[in-house]
């Protein structure tokens, strides 16, 4: 199966489509729609955003051969950069040789932020907010009955003080379970609803009321073990780990390392109609969450001399709402992967980032970006 993936590049477009039909539940009509390049009509585009005068196409590719939590997946990737899909597929194939990836997630909690200014006694205000969190939760949970019906809604309230040159702000976090949505609209509406209540409690003035894209409660993790013999020997594992250590100690390299991970992530975010900027800002912020800017994947050698890789990032993506429903290809991308929850989509997206990193780093430490990857493995 994995060697077959390396041959995928050699197939004609129709041969690739035939393979995708064989390995996914997409129908001939679905695949023809993808192939046509006309799935997004001008009429739909005009409903998606403002000031539309046309549509803009990009290559729609597939990375076959992923195994994630034991499930075989063909991952759709929309993007313009050559080599990305090939090296991501190569990373997936390397992983599949040893059982594939194991992915988990921490749920679908997001943060809505309310900035409160002009508070004379901020420490007291903070405690008053925490004392009345139940009242705040009940008020904001009236905003989105549909979300509540799916078991979502505001679950907790946190409060922090932020010192700035313009004084101390009270930073109230509404902890909101958005379930299968990306969640921006509901969170923003809840934050706006909370603002007058918080002003009343604190005596302050609410300024910003909006979600935070640093989704630290909505993390996704994926890991993989690659056997040293599948990497051409332990010396290549050592080069791999050395490359990671360089990135972990050098911000110039870490930034490019993370760009390589995003090469896998963003094309799947686009293919499923999700918000690339929300994902990018969240991941890059998380890369320096706590201390220094660091690589968002980790690679180390285990006691057998094999390579262990992992990723942990925030992933605010949805399978309902926004463009995920409006763009016909976004729905087909989910159907291709047989995905029915935002959490599973998040796991696949993070895993694709890890696979892209595996594929490209292996090339970089062996044959170089444009070398013969297959030859290096042998
Ligand atoms: P949305 O409001 O269109 O859909 C989400 C809503 O669908 C929920 O609030 C709920 O009412 C309903 N729903 C139905 N079934 C559901 C289920 N199973 N789980 C959860 N909710 C369900 O979409 P959204 O997710 O709020 O907004 C997404 C878009 O908002 C993004 O694509 C993004 O571009 C945009 N946005 C982002 C930001 C930001 O990231 N800072 C800010 C503003 C807007």
Using brief descriptors, characterize the structure shown.
alpha+beta, single chain, 4-stranded antiparallel sheet, 16 helices, 3-hydroxy-3-methylglutaryl-coenzyme A Reductase, Chain A, domain 2, 378 residues, binds nicotinamide-adenine-dinucleotide, 2 domains, Alpha-Beta Plaits
Structure description:
With 378 residues, the chain is of the alpha+beta class. The protein folds into two domains: 264 residues, 3-hydroxy-3-methylglutaryl-coenzyme A Reductase, Chain A, domain 2 (Alpha-Beta Complex); 104 residues, 2-Layer Sandwich (Alpha-Beta Plaits), CATH 3.30.70.420. Helix content is 48%, strand content 22%. A hairpin with a 5-residue loop joins strand 9 and strand 10. The longest helix has 24 residues. It starts with a helix and ends with a helix. Nicotinamide-adenine-dinucleotide binds next to helix 8, helix 9 and helix 13.
CATH level 4 superfamily of the largest domain: 3-hydroxy-3-methylglutaryl-coenzyme A Reductase, Chain A, domain 2
SS-based class: alpha+beta
CATH topology of the largest domain: 3-hydroxy-3-methylglutaryl-coenzyme A Reductase, Chain A, domain 2
Q: Which architecture of the largest domain does the CATH hierarchy give at level 2?
A: Alpha-Beta Complex
Shape: globular
Helix content: 40-55%
How many DSSP helices? 16
Q: Give every kind of bound small molecule, once each.
A: nicotinamide-adenine-dinucleotide
Distance between the termini: 16 Å
H/E topology pattern: HHHHEEHEEHHHEEHEEHHHEEHHHH
User: What is the C-alpha radius of gyration, as a whole number of Å?
Assistant: 23 Å
Mean pLDDT: 95
Number of strands: 10
Main beta sheet strand tally, sense and closure? 4 strands, antiparallel
């Amino acid at each position: 199966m994995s060697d077959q993936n390396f041959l995928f590049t050699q197939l004609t477009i129709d041969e690739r489509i035939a393979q995708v039909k064989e390995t996914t539940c997409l129908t001939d009509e679905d695949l023809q729609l993808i192939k046509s390049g006309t799935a997004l009509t001008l009429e739909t585009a005009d409903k998606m955003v403002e000031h539309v005068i046309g549509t803009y196409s990009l290559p729609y590719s597939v990375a076959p051969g992923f195994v994630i939590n034991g499930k075989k997946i063909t991952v759709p990737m929309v993007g313009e950069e050559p080599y990305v899909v090939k090296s991501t597929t190569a990373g997936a194939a390397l992983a599949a040789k040893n059982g594939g990836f194991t992915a988990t997630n921490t749920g679908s909690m997001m943060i809505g932020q309310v900035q409160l200014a002009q508070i004379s006694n901020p420490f007291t205000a903070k405690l008053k907010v925490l004392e009345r969190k139940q009242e705040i939760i009940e008020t904001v949970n009236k905003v989105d009955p549909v979300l509540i019906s799916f078991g979502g809604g505001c679950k907790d309230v946190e409060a922090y003080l932020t010192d700035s040159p313009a004084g101390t702000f009270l930073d109230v976090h509404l902890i909101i379970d958005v379930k299968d949505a990306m969640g921006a609209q509901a969170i923003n509406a809840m934050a706006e609803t909370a603002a007058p209540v918080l002003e009343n409690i604190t005596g302050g003035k609410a300024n910003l009321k909006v979600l935070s894209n640093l989704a630290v409660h909505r993390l996704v993790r994926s890991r993989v073990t690659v056997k040293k013999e599948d990497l051409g020997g332990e010396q290549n594992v050592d080069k791999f780990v050395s490359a990671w250590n360089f990135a972990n100690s050098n911000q110039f390299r870490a930034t490019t390392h993370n760009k390589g991970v995003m090469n896998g992530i963003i094309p799947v975010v686009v293919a499923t109609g999700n918000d690339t900027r929300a994902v990018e800002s969240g991941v890059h912020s998380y890369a320096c969450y706590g201390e220094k800017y660091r690589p968002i994947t980790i690679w180390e050698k285990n006691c057998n001399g094999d390579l262990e890789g992992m990723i942990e990032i925030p992933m605010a993506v949805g399978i309902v709402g926004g463009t995920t429903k409006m763009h016909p290809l976004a729905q087909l991308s989910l159907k291709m992967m047989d995905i029915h929850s935002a959490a599973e989509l998040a796991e696949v997206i993070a895993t694709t980032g890890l696979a892209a990193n595996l594929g490209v780093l292996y090339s970089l430490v062996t044959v170089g970006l444009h070398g013969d990857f297959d030859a290096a493995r042998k």
